[in-house]
Amino acid sequence: MRNSGVLILLFTLACSCTRDNAVSLFNGQDLEGWHADVPAMDSISNAINPFIVRNGMLVSLGTPQGHLITDTSYSNFRLEVVYRFPNEPGNCGVLVHASTPRSLYEMFPKSIEVQMMHENAGDFWCIVQDIVTDDMVIRRGPKKDWGITEGKARRIKNLTEGSEKPLGDWNTMMIECYEDQIKVWVNADLVNHGYNATVTEGQIALQAEGAEVEFRKLVLTPIQSLSE
User: Fold this and answer.
1) SS3 102
2) pTM of the entire structure?
3) CA 62 to the chain's CA centroid
C-alpha cells in the first residue's frame, strides 16, 4: 500500500490535474514529465531538440527526427489529442504502449503507432508489437507479408476517408486503450479498432517525423471499464 501511495503521488506531481480524474500531459509552459530521444543529438553537436514550447503549445518541429516520450507508463486510458499541421501537410504520430527505444530502424521505440499523417490519421503501424483488426488482408495486405520489423507490412489502414479537417484547422483525435484493445476516433468518427494487441501498457510518445505539428491539448483520462 505504501508503494501504491508513492506512485499516485508521483503521477499527480508529473501532470496537471483536470476534471473527472483526467490529467493534462502538457502543462503549457515546459516539457516537464517528458524526455526526448533524438538520435542526431547523440553525435551532432549543433543538433537542436525538435520539441519545443511555443505560445502555450507543444510543438514538434519535425527535424531532426525522433520522439518525445512520457516519463510515466500508462494502461487503460483515453487520450485526447488536439493538433494541427500549421504550414505544410506531413507526417507525425502518437505512439502508445511504448517501451524499448530505437527498436526499429534505430529510431522508433517498441510500440503501436496511431498515425497522424495528413489524410491518413488513424492508421495503425506495428513497431515490434502487433495488433489485429477486422478485414486484415484488405487493410494490411497479403498475410505472408505481415510483420512487425523492418521490411514487413506493418501498416493497417484506417476505416474512413475525409475524417480530418482542412490543413491548418485543429483536429481532435481520441485514442482509447483498454486491456488489449485500441480504438481511435478522429473528429468524432471511429477510424480504427484493434484488438489482441501484444502489449497493454507503456509510455506515450510523440514523433518528430519531418513536418511541423502543433499540439494544444494532450489530456489523459484513466478508465476502469469500457462503460465509462
Assistant:
1) coil
2) 0.90
3) 15
